[in-house]
Amino acid sequence: MATGCLSSTSRPDFPGLDAFEGDHHHTGDWPQAPVDFGAKRVAVIGTGSSGIQCIPLIAAQAAHVYVFQRTASYSVPAQNGPLDPAHQSDIKSRYAEVRARQRKELFAFDVGLNPAHALETTPEERDHEYQARWKVGGLTFLGSFSDLLYVREANHTAAEFIRGKIREIVRNPEVAQSLSPRHLAGCKRLCVDTGYYETFNRSNVTLVDLRNAPIEEITANGIRTGGREFAVDLIVFATGFDAMTGSLLRIDIRGSGGVKLRDKWADGPRTYLGLGTAGFPNFFVIAGPGSPSVLTNMVVCIEQHVGWIADCIAYMGEQGFEQIDPDPAAEDAWVAHANALAEETLYPEENSWYLGANIPGKPRIFMPYLGFPPYEAKCDAVAANDYEGFRFRYASST
Question: Which sign, positive or negative, has the C-alpha torsion 219, 225, 231, 235?
Answer without folding.
Answer: negative
